[in-house]
Amino acid sequence: MSEPQPIYLSDYRPPAYRVTHTELTFDLDPAATRVKARLHVERHPDREAGAPLELDGEQLALKAIAIDGQPLGEDEYALTERGLRVERVPARFLLDTEVEIAPEDNTALEGLYQSNGMYCTQCEAEGFRRITFYPDRPDVMATFSTTVIGDAGREPVLLSNGNPVERGELPGGRHFVTWEDPHPKPCYLFALVAGDLKKVEDGFTTAGGRDVTLQIWVEEENLGKTDHAMASLKRAMRWDEETYGREYDLDLFMIVAVNDFNMGAMENKGLNIFNSAAVLTHPDTATDAAFQRVEGIVAHEYFHNWSGNRVTCRDWFQLSLKEGFTVFRDQCFSADTNSAPVKRIEEVSFFRTAQFAEDAGPTAHPVRPDHYIEIGNFYTLTIYEKGAEIVRMLRNLVGWDAFRRGSDRYFERFDGQAVTIEDFVACMAEASGRDLSQFLRWYDQAGTPEIDAHGEYDYANGVYRLVLRQRTPATPGQPDKRPLHIPIRLGLVGTKTGRDLPLTLDGEALGTDGVIHLHEEEQEFVFTEVAEAPVPSLARNFSAPVKLHFPYSREDLAFLQTHDSDGFNRWDAGQRLALLALDDLIAAHRNGVEKVMDGRVVEAFRALLAAEPDDKAVLAEMLTLPSEAYIAEQQPLVDVDAIHAARQFVKQSLALALRDDFLRVYEANRREAPYAPEPEQIGERSLKNVALSYLMSIEDEEGIELARRQFEADHNMTDVRAALTLLVHSSRDDLADPALRAFGEKWAHDPLVMDQWFSIQVSRPQSDALERVKFLMDHPAFSLTNPNKVRALIGAFAQNRINFHRADGEGYRLLADVVIELNRLNPEIAARLVTPLTRWQRFDETRQDLMKGELERIRGEALSPNLYEVIEKALA
Ligand code: TRP
Ligand code: ZN
User: What pTM does this model have?
Assistant: First the structure.
């Protein structure tokens, strides 16, 4: 096999042939499904006569091929590893092919595969080429007519995109349904589902008066777990009408839950297919976080109907066109239906931990990459989350009204087309009259910009000078960076009054909460009429995806934590304060010096616990210390043990000093009312469980008793899981083991709960975590071919920092072993799972060598293109 070759954005050419209509017939069989395709093909008017027809196709057994009804002789076409080529074709013709595929052998979960006996498809990005020969690229859009033939007993339900137009019986116990999708779409949005499924049905009337039938299809035992997804769907449909003026465009909208799925969910036209973990909920089986995740993903996939489906991507380099915009849309939706500040805090803490790490590692890439080997490797935090941050900056730059006009323009102008990121930004520029040319660099430049800020207050003249200097570190393939247009939202908080001071910049009044624009490498901003010495509150609400350094004293941070009018920055000031204290403790640990707790952090926490919170979920966030992963991101060289020890020390010191406060908060936030996934209850549960985690960190009898009782009360999964985690992560195996056993037996029948059971035990800090992983890999509920199980067991273990990074390298070895096996079974998952090993540069030399050794061992295998690309980058 030859080395996989990169594809370049600069090589883009429109397709020589387009398909205007696609007729498919599937005769389903686990080992030998027959797929007949009739493509209505036309040569592109600008292309020369005689251009060959090239179709993508992988792992297909061709059984028949004809053009305009004439079978082709063997010398009239050529089959390659990548597809099919016909040298001479008319300007307009019908192409008929028939192929055979084996869904039961498809463990990659791309194309047509089986999950729990049911058939389903996943075509994004390039799975359709495993179903039939086709121009598998998003700029070829066709209407589809699909007939699915299955066994009437085993597959009573036969689904595809659009509307069902015909159904009937066939000989031999077979039956069929024909579906028509009137909206032209690229083949990555094609879907088929067949199996013994049950549905929950509801309805929605659009603002324009269309009655839409809503269906969620699940296995029978999951019928009781669809309420939240259905309610979320209806809220999302209404929200998109009210916020973006976007209505649904078919009479039927279906969601199907499947157990084996590589990602969260997929926006196939009219037939969204979901990982069961992203749709099923019940108070007894799903946590608050899972309820919120389901709401967000249901909305995300629904919103794609416009941002992605009606207007799609010209090529896969433009992936963030649909993903960044759609993530931004689902983030705003969730902020509107939940506690908005908490939503933002959660987004940003995740972003700064995981996306910053990606941007700083060997797989760093721009939001619009200029080359790739395997597009499946580019469904990343950079494309999704950084893409969303860019859209958010755009919204803030032009203001909501212009943004909405730009969005209307975008949907109207490009409806039914496959377009680029420039097309999107151009609509925003036109609608706002702003020059966004420098802003566009955000899409093409990888790496996290860092801003060094300094401020100086001139008492005599009432002037505050703020100097900002930006730099973006080199990333692979991009040694030199240009300055970006970075919007910085800020306030100057008066140290006397504790209030935001009016901002006057170059004679212009910006209010008390203004935005300044950094365009140059270095810029000075001079604020006049500043009546008192201020502490600057910078990049409020995380106004740009950057690292902002300012030489805050601990007093400044404690001050901002109480006085900043921006809720997000109040939280962030607390995080910065905790990080300063953690830095000292990490150093103390490394130097073998006695650790001393910073009293300012204790006092800050005492004040937080004493105040009457207006948003309990926010308070819970403020009481949560930066995660070990986030602390590690701040360190020049990661010392996993020192970080763990330092964080543990802070937590226990706080618990010892403020034990009674935590107890009081715990008691004050217990509630007996029936579970509901609503903001107020969620806030109470978060606060209560954070308090419990402090009490359990010192393992005193009262804390243990509370955790045990909470576990046994069995009120809802949020509380049960929180208590179980604390018991299992404690040093008391006499508590951990019986609780785990009881939980495992109770939920043995429920795969989504068993995922949690796996994760909880392999993320414990005790040194037996690795042995537990090995042991659990033989558990009957575990399976390497189910991505959720792999993530729950192996993925969760790789996040267990002290145990994955064991000094003997056994954690790395285990991960590499699994990656090697998955390379054959499911390359997309293998390439994701290996990520922690690719971050070797961040660790000490011994660990570096161990990690690189495992990467080399993986490189010795016959690699899938997915893994090949990641490993080559990691070892470059
Ligand atoms: N487009 C999907 C989304 O973000 C995600 C997706 C891309 C996906 N490729 C996939 C899902 C492969 C499952 C499998 O909504
Ligand atoms: Zn998406």
Answer: 0.98
